[in-house]
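Hi all, posting the design record for the shared folder.

TITLE: backbone redesign
STEP: 1 of 1
STRUCTURE INPUT:
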């Protein structure tokens, strides 16, 4: 745990000598979730083929801080469960409220560390068993990003997200690692 805090301090310490802008922004991202399974309460473990993740954020940057509303959508193809082959879709949707500390320096690179809370829904539509859908699953996430300013209004920002979904009616609690490549446009 000490090493994690050292990394965070080093990550944020490169954010000195900044003059960030205050602006409304829109960010769009595309990526993948690195997890490939979900466990139901009845003991079935479904595995799925990683496909894609879409993300849209609307936020406001105030100095070194950002607040945003995020909508994410993940779709994957099911290919097996505990008893054999499976066909269908795994869909996860999340609505999050995120807070960030973003750092700027004299170069065009910037870093961000953030935390978000919100709600998710999981839908598992398996042609061999049944459709399972759970809404209003409490979700929390931690986010690390290193971006590059392409100009006054444009930022390219690859990011890593660790998302936690609480146990729900039909699904066990799960962690979800995500890699996203996004573009942020600041309206200033």
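Okay, here is what came back for every position:
SEQUENCE:
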């Amino acid at each position: 745990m000490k090493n994690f805090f050292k990394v965070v301090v080093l990550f944020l310490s490169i954010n000195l000598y900044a003059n960030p802008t205050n602006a409304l922004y829109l960010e769009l991202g595309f990526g993948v979730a690195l997890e490939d399974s979900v466990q139901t309460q009845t003991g079935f473990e479904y595995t799925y083929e990683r496909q894609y993740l879409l993300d849209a954020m609307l936020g406001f940057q105030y100095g070194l801080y950002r607040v945003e509303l995020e909508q994410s959508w993940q779709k994957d193809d099911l290919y097996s469960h505990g008893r054999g082959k499976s066909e269908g879709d795994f869909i996860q949707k999340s609505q999050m409220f995120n807070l960030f500390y973003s750092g700027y320096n004299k170069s065009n690179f910037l870093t961000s560390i953030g935390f978000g809370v919100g709600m998710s829904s999981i839908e598992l539509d398996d042609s061999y068993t049944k459709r399972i859908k759970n809404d209003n699953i409490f979700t929390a996430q931690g986010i690390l990003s290193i971006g590059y300013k392409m100009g006054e209004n444009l930022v390219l920002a690859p990011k890593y997200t660790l998302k936690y979904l609480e146990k729900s009616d039909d699904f066990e609690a799960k962690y979800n690692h995500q890699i996203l490549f996004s573009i942020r446009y600041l309206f200033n």
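COMMENT: The domain at 2-187 is CATH 2.40.160.20 (Porin).
Let me know if anyone wants the other runs.
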